[in-house]
Automatic annotation (TrEMBL):
Region (Disordered): 22-44
Organism this protein belongs to: Nocardia yunnanensis
Official protein name in the record: DUF1963 domain-containing protein
Superkingdom of this protein's organism: Bacteria
Amino acid sequence: MTRTTPPRPADLEAAFPELASLARTATRLHPRPGIPSPQDSSIGGPLLWPASEPWPHCGEVAHHTSPIPLMSVADARLRQRLAAARDSRAAARPSREGWGYNPYTPEERAILEQIQAQDKPEGPVSMLPVAQLYLRDVPGLRPPEGSDLLQVLWCPFEHDDGMPTTALFWRTAAAVSDILLAPPEPAAIYGVFYVPEPCLVHPEEVIEYPSALELGKEMRERLERWAVTEFGIEYLDLCIPPGCKVGGYINWGMTDAYPTPCPTCGTPTEPLLTISGKEWYFDVHHWIPYEDQADNLAWGPGQDGPARPTRICVSDDNAQIIQICPASPEHPHTQIMQ
Ligand SMILES: [Zn+2]
Ligand SMILES: [Zn+2]
C-alpha cells in the first residue's frame, strides 16, 4: 500500500516566491509494522549482511544506564507486544471517555512482573539494525558510486550526545550471496524505545522548505507571522514533515541552527537519514497520509497508536539526524539531535 501526504494547507511558494529556490526533495519513509526480509527496505528489519563480515559492535564503556532498568532484547519485544495489545484494546473502546485509563490485564501484568532486569553488559555491545534502504525503493538516497544499499545500525544505549551511536554501511546488494542469518544481539539494552518494531517502508517523495531558524531574521519573522495569522499554525509545522525520512532539511528548534562541518574536511554535511519516533502529531492533519487518517481518528489524541509505528523514541522524543559529507563517502558520518 502506498502512502500519500496531503497538500499543505498553505502554498508557501505562492506567498514567498523566494522559498522556491530553497525547496528540497525529501523521502518520507512511512514505516509500518510488517515482516521485512533481508531483501526488503525496512526500519528495524533484518539486514542483507554478508556471513563473512564481522557484525558491528560498540566498544564504548561510558553507556548511560539509568534511570531505566536494562533488559534483554527478547523482553523488550515482549513488553512492546503487550503495550501494543493494551493500546489496541483502548482504541477499540466505543467511547473516548476514560481514555487515559488504560490498564494491563492481570495476565499481562503477571508476565511483565517476571521480566528480569539485566546487568550492564561487559565488553563490546552488538549493534541493532535500525534501517536498511535499497536505492530501488529510495531513489533519493544518492549512494556512493557502485552502491545501491544503505544499512544503519545503532548501539541501543544513550551515549554522551544523548543518542545511540550509529554505524553506516553502503553496499552493492548483488555482491552479498551468503547472508548472515542469526546476527548477535546485545545481552542487555537501555529501554524498549531503542528496539525498533520491524517495519516495511512505503517511501514517498515530498518537498521541504528550510526551517525558519536557517533564514534571516526578517524572513523568519514574516514567515512565522504569516503562518500563525493566516492559518493558525506554526511555520515549523509547515516546512518539514515529522517522522523517518531521507534527505531534506533539519527541523531545528531544540537548539538554534548551527553549522555541522565534516570533521575530516570541513565541508558542510548534509542530512542523510532522520530517525524519529513520531510520524505525525494527532492534530497536524496535513502530515497524516490519507491512508492513515481514519486510523488516526480511531486512536484519539492521548495515545501514539499508528503515529509511532516503529515504537522508537530517541531521548526525549527528538529526531536523530545522521549527516554525511558530500565531498567523500570515506569521511565519517556525524549525527545531531533536534
Ligand atoms: Zn554504545
Ligand atoms: Zn568531508
